[in-house]
Specification:
binds S-adenosylmethionine; 455 residues
């Protein structure tokens, strides 16, 4: 059986009944997230700070729910159809608060606020990972997604047909865990490890695989009718499985000794993980056993706004070969994606699947720790460098603050434009338009805070 290792120093961890998992070298214990049916190790380099970070994200999700509930309070002026929908939504959101409180209860947050050590280690959760970012995937995995899940499984087992059955399987970015569960049952390895950075998803995967049944409300993006704006789903796995373990950890700092997995699967991960692809490939290479396989599946939608980073499958193949693998097959398949029956929003995605075998020429390397945060921020003592980007932010913030300070309940848009012109901040022909645009944005933000966003 594979042993879990310290994500800081690679020492094998000791599991303790109460204290979680202990690294005797770093003298640090890693918590276990608990559920009614089991425990999920939380193996981040700085576990307490990271847990606290997640806790804040869950609190933010609960606060957002409060705001949403207040926006569904019935208003006299709406028609009967809207009233009907909002009333249904209001009940569902209130129920959802209880559902989430139950799901989040498995998170233990220590008293110690270890923010400083978190900073010292320069680790950071990506700011765009919300607690409920992948809520649709949960419902696809464990309620209405049977057909989608089956199609993906058939496609992947077809691609793997020529390879030896894996004994040790690792699924990175496993989400709510259905594919890990399906692959485990289809390929029958001795052990499967499923890793995700989101504790809620790990706990759900663990609970489902242990045979629990849960109720969770789905809020489809474009409901097909009023009842579909919030649908209570029953989440359950097709069957209970043994030998599948969920771990909450950073896929960039895996808590395993090198070279142990004969199959590493990365479903819908390489284009969303907060790391350079070449760095992530080093991590995958290190985790894979000599002659083992890496199976990548999902979209290739790299790096949002930067057009130059939008890599093709030929480039992926090139980089894979450079990273010490030999690409065995590379296929495209049009597959349904998140097609909730309650939503009008249903995707079909040209997914890419690449199977590569690890060469044995290179020694696996440890990925250096993430360097998200600069020294001046970590130590707090060095001067903050005045970079061109920060300089621009400073100037725009000053102008914003000045315009805001002009709002006194008396001045009009034209009065404010006149002040800007007098202060020589803007020529007359631009000032009125600029003030209008600025105030439009402010108004939209204020409405969002007050929960009155009409878009
Ligand atoms: C697009 S979702 C795909 C989830 C799942 N594989 C599926 O197909 O439904 C990406 C997943 O990767 C996880 N993830 C992102 N960055 C990660 C990291 N550094 N380490 C581990 N998991 C990560 C997210 O929490 C999320 O569950």
């Amino acid at each position: 059986m594979i042993s879990l290792c310290c994500p800081r120093c690679d020492t094998v961890l000791n599991e303790q009944a109460q204290a979680g998992m202990l690294c005797t070298a770093c003298k640090i214990s890693f918590p276990m997230l608990s559920s009614p049916t089991g425990r999920v190790p939380f193996l981040w380099s700085e576990p307490q700070a990271c847990l606290l970070d997640w806790q804040n994200r869950f609190n933010a999700a609960l606060a957002d729910l409060e705001t949403q509930i207040s926006t569904t309070q019935l208003i006299d002026s709406v028609g009967p159809a809207t009233r009907h929908r909002l009333s249904h939504l209001n009940n569902a959101l209130t129920r959802h608060q209880r559902e989430l409180a139950d799901l989040f209860s498995g998170l233990q947050v220590g008293d110690a606020l270890a923010r400083e050590t978190h900073l010292a280690l320069r680790t950071q959760l990506p700011s765009h990972h919300g607690a409920l970012s992948y809520a649709q995937n949960i419902h696809r995995d464990w309620s209405w997604g049977e057909d989608e899940n089956q199609q993906v499984l058939e496609h992947l087992t077809g691609v793997l047909a020529q390879t030896k059955k894996p004994v040790r399987l690792l699924v990175l970015g496993c989400g709510a865990g259905r594919l890990a569960n399906d692959l485990h049952r289809a390929l029958s390895p001795t052990e499967t490890w499923a890793v995700d950075s989101n504790p809620l998803l790990c706990l759900l995967g663990q609970r489902m695989s242990a045979g629990e049944t849960l109720s969770l409300t789905e809020f489809p993006l474009a409901p097909v009718n009023a009842e579909a704006c919030a649908v209570t789903r029953t989440l359950a796995a097709p069957e209970t499985v043994e030998g599948l373990t969920f771990v909450c950890a950073d896929a960039m700092r895996l808590p395993f000794a090198p070279g142990q997995f004969d199959l590493v699967v990365t479903p819908w991960l390489i284009d969303v993980i907060d790391a350079r692809l070449a760095d992530f490939m080093r991590v995958i290479y290190r985790a894979t056993a000599p002659d083992g396989y890496w199976l990548n599946h999902g979209s290739l939608a790299f790096a949002g706004n930067q057009a130059a980073n939008r890599m093709t499958c030929e480039e992926l193949q090139e980089q894979t070969n450079d990273a010490g693998f030999t690409v065995q097959s590379s296929t495209d398949e049009l597959l349904p994606y998140l097609q909730s029956p309650a939503s009008r929003h249903r995707r079909v995605e040209l997914t890419h699947t690449q199977l590569a075998q690890r060469d044995n020429a290179q020694a696996p390397q440890r990925q250096p720790r993430h360097q998200h945060l600069p020294e001046w921020l970590v130590s707090g003592r060095a001067p903050i460098p005045l970079s061109p980007g920060l300089q621009t932010q400073i100037t725009t913030t000053k102008i914003h603050a000045f315009i805001m300070s002009l709002i006194d309940g008396k001045r009009s848009v034209l009065d404010m434009a006149k002040v800007l012109e007098e202060q020589r901040l803007m020529p007359a022909d631009q000032a009125t338009m600029a003030v209008r645009q600025f105030l439009t944005t402010m108004l939209e933000e204020a409405r969002r805070f007050e929960g009155q966003d009409h878009h």
